[in-house]
Design goal:
It comes from Pelagomonas calceolata. This is Carbohydrate kinase FGGY C-terminal domain-containing protein. This protein is of the alpha/beta class. About 30% of the residues lie in helices and about 25% in strands. The strands form six sheets. Strands 2, 3, 4, 5, 11 and 12 form a six-stranded mixed sheet that branches. β15 and β16 form a beta hairpin. α8 crosses α13. It is globular and about 65 Å long. The protein starts with a strand and ends with a helix. The relative contact order is 0.16. The N terminus is likely disordered.
């Protein structure tokens, strides 16, 4: 585990931080692509002009040509592209591929964010304790995996968001720029803002160093001399000269969406503010004055403006509700009777299969569930919901125990955000206010990031 105090104070950025204009946000998720065109209003707020999306299957989502074809399909459904001045792209964290340095053509197809490779002894020997590159799914582990397969020749590693942003800017020559968020698991030092010597000197040979250092890394949202060419303008329907700014990961784009005050156009982030995403799994992100990294439980920190964003994700989550075959109508009706003061007296731990990663690192952890044949469906649902809420409580406690700032407020994203009775229960367990985020769409978050500059 590594703790590092931030060198700057946490700030709440005012509405004036938004630059005038219209921005396009693109999010490449696990199930498809979404786009949002966002405009800064004269009163300082932000408005969504339009949204569009296209879905892909799991198999299609592993193919770069599908990313581009589905994005083209999505943008064809947008009528406001002529107003766009900036574009930002977010993609699934840890999804990366190799391309030719001269042509940008894919030389080795993507390994996705959840693809594990054989751990590298070089990383084990060189990486700082607790560093996120020690994971078998890290981008650095994947780069060394490719190097073991065959020699790296005139190739550049890039992330999903980097690849698509380059295609938006130029259809002929690659303009490969990454960002602090995507490059974290590739080993980019987000304190010194450079590739660290422990990677360049101890993990990589000369060809492998070139594969890495050809990829420029910039601040998310920053202008980086990457603009839509005339040829790309015809291909995508965007005005020539539009700035394709530094991107981000899908989860941080969703955090930005949740943290944005739409009426004021301000990104409200102060130490202790957090976002819980209640989807199939339970993901936590907490703004902290202190950086925290502990790869043993999947905890790592991103830079977000002048703050640290500490995150962790549990395997427990709302997927268990579908496993118990609760319908949407049942969830709504039976939640009406939830006891906001309930606690997890039965020790429910709502996994759907063996194994947990956060807040415990326990591959053998077994689910603890209510009886499936119980006749009282309301009681079963209450047990499951208090169990998920308790995992959320334990998660924020685990971040605090590792040195992160204490929790002060939670905004909620994901399907579980639509349940106000559950929010009251979670607020009681967490001891802080819990609200539903006004907008949690990652494409919206990417567009806001582009507007902010």
């Amino acid at each position: 585990m590594r703790l590092l105090a931030a060198a700057v104070l946490v700030t709440t950025m005012p509405a004036a931080a938004l630059n005038p204009g219209v921005a396009l946000g693109i999010d490449l998720g696990t199930s498809g692509v979404r786009a949002a065109v966002v405009e800064k209003k004269t009163n300082g707020g932000v408005a969504v002009l339009e949204e569009a999306s296209a879905a892909w299957s799991d198999a299609e989502g592993r193919r770069p040509e599908v990313w581009l074809s589905k994005l083209r399909e999505t943008l064809k459904g947008c009528d406001q592209l002529a107003k766009v001045e900036r574009v930002a792209v977010s993609g699934t964290s840890g999804s990366c591929l190799l391309v030719d340095a001269d042509t940008g053509k894919v030389t080795r197809g993507p390994l996705m964010y959840n693809d594990a490779v054989e751990p590298s002894s070089l990383i084990d020997a060189a990486a700082p304790p607790g560093h996120c590159t020690r994971s078998a799914t890290s981008a650095l582990a994947k780069l060394l995996h490719w190097a073991r397969e065959r020699k790296l020749e005139n190739e550049v590693i890039c992330h999903q968001a980097d690849y698509v942003a380059s295609a938006l800017a130029s259809t002929e020559k690659p303009v490969l720029v990454s960002d602090w968020h995507n490059a974290l698991k590739l080993g980019f030092d987000i304190d010194a803002l450079e590739w660290p010597s422990w990677i360049l000197e101890r993990c990589l040979n000369a060809d492998e160093r070139n594969t890495l250092t050809r990829l420029r890394v910039t601040r998310p949202g920053d202008v980086c001399e990457r603009v839509v060419s005339a040829e790309a303008s015809e291909a995508w329907g965007l005005p020539a000269g539009v700035e394709v700014v530094g991107g981000t990961t899908d989860s941080i784009a969703a955090f930005v969406a949740c943290a944005t005050d739409i009426d004021k156009g301000a990104l409200n982030v102060a130490a202790g503010d957090a976002v819980t995403s209640l989807g199939s799994t339970t993901a936590l992100k907490l703004v902290s004055k202190t950086r925290v990294d502990d790869s043993s439980v999947g905890v790592y920190s991103h830079r977000l403006e002048d703050n640290w964003l500490v995150g962790g994700a549990s395997n427990a989550g709302c997927r268990v509700l579908r496993d118990f075959e609760f319908t949407n109508d049942e969830l709504e009706a039976l939640s009406m009777g939830l006891d906001a003061a309930a606690t997890n007296t039965k020790g429910i731990y709502p996994l759907v299969s063996t194994g947990e990663r956060f807040p415990y690192n326990d591959a053998s952890k077994e689910p603890v569930l209510p009886p499936r044949d119980g006749g009282d469906r309301a009681a079963v649902l209450a047990d499951l919901l208090v169990g998920i809420a308790d995992v959320e409580r334990l998660g924020y406690l685990a971040l605090k125990e590792r040195g992160a700032s204490p929790l002060k407020a939670v905004a909620t994203a994901g399907g579980g955000a639509r349940n106000p009775q559950w929010a009251a229960m979670r607020s009681n367990l967490l001891g802080v206010d819990v609200v539903r985020a006004a907008n949690s769409d990652a494409a919206f978050g990417a567009a806001v990031l582009a507007l902010r500059g």
